[in-house]
Write a structure and sequence with these properties.
Length: 245
């Protein structure tokens, strides 16, 4: 019988931290050294797109719009892949999603290295970088959505920062140890994810402009895909099925 619900994959904290750091690195490197567009942080692109449109800067608006559309398409493809597996009663395969994402990021690295230059943001060269990079990050966004019972996002940090504040407040105000424990665990997970994004971006800013530095997130993605594959062979990741809206 077809499944009408959406799977929400839950994986280990190590995978969430690695993926978030890779997204932060990719975001910062491309924003600083290729074009002023985020390939992972769509909240930032929404703000920048609105500012560009308000100022009448249609080229800038088109770049941010390309990222938004591509990210949404990547998320749609990954979720379609998950939903197809569910309909066919097959196991969830986030490892394949991550492996495909790593391959897409290799294409981004090659494109920048062969055809690009630093700050080529006003040329058509950047659109494949934005489109493929954002599509890849959109796919990643559907590869891991929880660490245990804690909802996480591995391609942006705004939601994690907000939930970190909420969980910290609930932890402090809880009347007893038993009540504090789940909020403390959630706060630790969210803090780790936020720091991973921050650390990835800081490393990218320190590393420099050479396109080869983008191989760092590629290696991280490939290693996470391999580790996920091995973990899935032993025990499938948890799948939380949300009721249809």
């Amino acid at each position: 019988m077809p499944h009408a619900t959406q799977p929400r994959l839950s994986g280990p904290l190590g995978a969430a931290v690695a993926l978030t750091a890779a997204a932060g690195f990719s975001d910062a490197h491309i924003f600083l050294h290729v074009t002023d567009v985020f390939v992972a942080n769509m909240s930032g692109n929404l703000v920048l797109a609105g500012m560009a449109l308000g100022e009448g800067s249609w080229r800038a608006g088109a770049r941010h719009g390309t990222a938004l559309v591509s990210f949404a398409l990547g998320a749609a493809v990954a979720n379609w892949f998950h939903a197809r597996n569910r309909r066919r009663d097959r196991p969830m395969r986030p490892d394949l999603v991550l492996a495909f994402e790593a391959g897409l990021m290799v294409l981004v690295v090659v494109w920048i290295a062969v055809l690009g230059g630093e700050h080529a943001g006003e040329t058509g060269f950047v659109y494949p970088v934005i489109g493929v990079g954002a599509f890849a990050m959109g796919m990643q966004n559907a590869a891991l959505l929880r660490v245990g019972a804690v909802a996480v996002a591995t391609t942006y940090a705004s939601g994690s920062v907000a939930r970190l504040g909420a969980e910290s407040a609930l932890m402090v105000s809880a009347p007893g140890v038993d009540e504090r424990s789940p909020h403390a665990r959630a706060a630790r997970v969210l803090a780790a994810v936020v720091l991973a994004y921050l650390g990835g971006a800081a490393l990218a800013a320190w590393a420099g402009s050479a396109a080869g530095w983008l191989l760092i997130p590629v290696v991280v993605l490939a290693a996470t895909a391999l580790a996920t594959h091995r973990r899935l062979a032993e025990e499938p990741w948890d799948v939380d099925i949300r009721p249809p809206a």
